[in-house]
Predict the structure.
Amino acid sequence: MKKLQAVTLVAALAPFFALADSQSGTTKAEASLDFKVTVPRVLMLQVGSASAIHLLTFDVPADKVGKGTAVAPTGGDVNNSAVTVRVMANGGDVTLNNRVIGAMKNTSVGAATTTPIEWNEISVVAGTLPVGNDSSYTNAAIPHPAFNASSNGLGTPVTLAATAGVVRIEGSWTFAYANTKTHAAGVYGESAGNGRVVYTATTP
């Protein structure tokens, strides 16, 4: 009978013996837990507003054509003449670059006989945002990767250094058309005329 009672007692205590960590005592008892947090790798690049591809339009005044007076665009999301740039990554340094597929062609009648607008005729000034849209980002000038010298292909990459493995920065890019050459009348660029720039962000 006593043997049966002992077996019954052991069986009743078995769930307690199976705990990961437990201790009993008369004046002190301790138990431990191990924690594990998995943070996914994230990479985000925003140029302009988060919901649209912006069209920057440079309208050259008739009395200024080819005279070297820089022309500011309209159509940006920052004061109408610049665009927001925002980068967030948690995988180390970020390499930022752009790609073009050729000089901007005249999409008007007779475009085949006109001289295209090369990408070196577009300048970019990096600056801060007038008002930071997200206080969790550092508001600072983000260098713009120079356009391809031949107006075809990848530009010159720039590196955004990570702090403790994280890049979280926002700023603005202000573009201008140099207007130093006299081009034939017409509309140059847009997506049909090689006017689209594709920006990329990569991490190791």
About this structure: The beta strands are 43-47, 82-89, 94-100, 122-127, 138-139, 153-154, 158-160, 167-177, 198-202. The helical segments are 2-17. The CA atoms of residues 135 and 170 lie 10 Å apart.
